[in-house]
Amino acid sequence: IFFSFTFFNFSVVPNPVLHGSEQLYFLTICRKMSNNAERFLLRAPPFNAKLLSNQKSLPTHHKEDTAMSKEPTTNSQGLSEECHAMISRISHEVRNPVAVIHSFHQLLLLAHPELSNDLYFQKIQENMAFLNSLLDELSCYNHSYRAVRAYVNPYLLLQNLCADTGVLLEKQQVSIELVKESAIPRFALDTTQFRQLFLNLIRNAAEAMPSGGTIKISLCFDGDFLTIRVQDTGCGIPAEDLPTLFDLFVTHKKNGTGLGLAICKEIVTAHDGTISVSSVPGEGSTFTVVFPFS
């Protein structure tokens, strides 16, 4: 697997090793140099390649096997703890040269301010911003399967979020409405993840309305479940895109990363909830998040 960037090339090479009857792999991560030589960066911990597949669940073992071995802890995408550690190390190693490039980029601009009007320089700037955004989202995804909860009022959290985003949305001619359809009790939530979840959904809704429109967020509690809907009046989502909308690294946007809605799904799953979407092309979309009361 090769990760190609504007200035550097990283190669990730799986090296097989037999552990008992199990086939494991070490990932050797190198950077290609100008003379085609490879500079060794790190070797990630061994992992089972099956855990990186897109299977929704891992194979079950016979009863007699469960007493002898323990399944690795996985999140909703079937990734184990060791795979999350591997993602962290890879993103960390990629972020280091990116930070160096960004620093020299800023120094170059200070020394030659006329470059700010150069098309190629602007393209470098845009792609550096995208790369940093991608690394941030990858880091966010990697930590979204764990929730550190505290009892808070979700309506008040959304009220603050709407106030924060409302000012920016006004410039895009997008209005945001928050409607409380019943009394809302305090819930055990990770406040940072909760904010990230609905910030992503609000951003997606705004992007679906480039000519302006309305985002409506409604909350309803029936005694057992809290249902929060984020509805927009945008372009809608084609029916063929709906089944893969929450899949990791699958994007239907021109400049998307395929991480935003995957992060949303991980956060909701970490809170034992569900997320779904309904959409009518040309009329808009509604994302529905349901949290159990516990």
Written overview of the protein:
The chain is an alpha+beta fold. Helices cover 36% and strands 26% of the residues. The chain is built from 6 helices and 11 strands. It has helices spanning 63-66, 81-111, 119-143, 154-171, 191-207, 260-270; strands at 2-4, 9-19, 22-32, 38-43, 150-152, 174-180, 187-189, 213-221, 225-232, 274-280, 284-292. It is globular. The protein starts with a strand and ends with a strand. 22% of the residues are buried.
Features:
294 residues; 5-stranded mixed sheet; 26% strand; disordered N terminus; single chain; alpha+beta
Describe the protein's topology.
Elements: E1 2-4, E2 9-19, E3 22-32, E4 38-43, H1 63-66, H2 81-111, H3 119-143, E5 150-152, H4 154-171, E6 174-180, E7 187-189, H5 191-207, E8 213-221, E9 225-232, H6 260-270, E10 274-280, E11 284-292
Parallel strand pairs: 6-8
Antiparallel strand pairs: 1-2, 2-3, 3-4, 5-7, 8-9, 9-11, 10-11
Helix pairs in contact: 2-3, 3-6, 4-5, 5-6
- Quantity of strands, as a count: 11
Class from secondary-structure proportions: alpha+beta
Radius of gyration: 22 Å
What's the pLDDT, averaged over the residues? 75
Instruction: Tell me the overall shape.
Output: globular
Strand content: 25-35%
Helix content: 25-40%
Q: Identify low-pLDDT runs.
A: 1-10, 39-78
* Biggest sheet overview: 5 strands, mixed
Strand order in space, largest sheet: 6-8-9-11-10
**How widely separated are the two ends?**
44 Å
**Count of helix runs:** 6
Order of helices and strands: EEEEHHHEHEEHEEHEE
